[in-house]
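Pasting as-is:
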Amino acid sequence: MVAQGIVPFGDDHAENKGGTLGGEIAGQFIGFGGWLKRWRHAAGLTQTPVAKALGMGVRTYRNVEKGAAAPRFTKSQCEALADLLGLDKSERHALLLYNVGTTLSDPQIDASPELRRALRLLIDRQMPSPTYLTDRNWNVLAYNQAMAEWWPWVMESRANLMRWALTNPEARTQYHDWDMHAGAYVRLLKFAQATHKGNDELVELIAEVRLDPDVERIWCTQGDLEADRDGHVFRMIIPALGWETVEVVSHVLYPASMPSHRFVVITWVEAEDSDEETDALGGKRNAWAHADAGPPAAPQPSSQAEADAARRRAARALTARLVVDSADEAAALAGPDGIPLPALSALAGPGCRLTLSPENHSVVWAIQEAPGEWGVTQLGAGAVVDRVQAPIFDPDARAELKLLLRASLPDADQLALGRLHGQLPQADLRAALLREIFDDLREVETRPH
């Protein structure tokens, strides 16, 4: 019995019998063969050209539509079939998932304003967890306030996770056992190299990071592949938390609208009972790397622990990022007394506008993400100072840096003097000891073996 309102599609032979559709039932076309019939009829084609595009006989193809034979098509067959039938994105996806288990190719990015707003909302709602979005080549496309606060490099021009993790001195300071992490990133790059054919940007990125001798050494000795870092638990030193070591977990998701992109959420774990053999989630320490981490951190005095907890609470209280129409609109967020920082803006990179807000002791950091779209992050003045790595000789930039340092202190002169009175000896001692350690290590490194 044929279900009312549903017309089953027969083969060409049945269709030519004076319009008779035969005795097929509705359930007969619910399945892959049925979808092939629907797509073929929607394209206005007979079975002959479809069979030809697939490189098979008409009889064999007719059996596929009937469900009597169900061979898996190859990727090239799927591509030819999708082009011939004019399948849309979802239909192509279904075709490939059934036959090959993957998508035809990287889909075109849906850059509609609605999707961009939806992704921004999702990223911002992950607060206080640092969250970011990258394309398939690890270029950072979006991030939330916590991500900018913990890792300000995401706000730079051409921000790229691989470029930062493998070539930036910051990464070697922040990762516990950088070589171990570099090995993981190299495995990711090798997986991408093996699976992303014709990706010129990836080829250039790999060539760039391999210019670093340490990366090249790891590349030549690392023979494995890895698809992602989802679920990896590892230790990092976070400058925004007073150079505290935290244990973080990387969660990697793939948006359905752009499956080649990575939506990454970083959560941190405070596990007092975790030891050197067991990570904070109860698993084997650094099991993803098949290596042990460095020595455990020394226990902290209660006063220091309380101060670190206060910093974490401050990080959790951060508000979501804003997106405004212009750099001037972003600068206005610093208030009527906002002070432009053009020299430091130039050092931050093209498309950046930094404005000091003396009232809030913060800096409005704006970066142009697209024409007419400026992403805004408000950072503490001290966090921006920490961002400066190289010596600054430009007098204008030095003057602006001095303004930031002053803004990181209390407004009242006496209170600022009191703060400096307590901090300067400690800062001088720390700098002197770090210099001694640097000289000792350099002496050992240059000593003949």
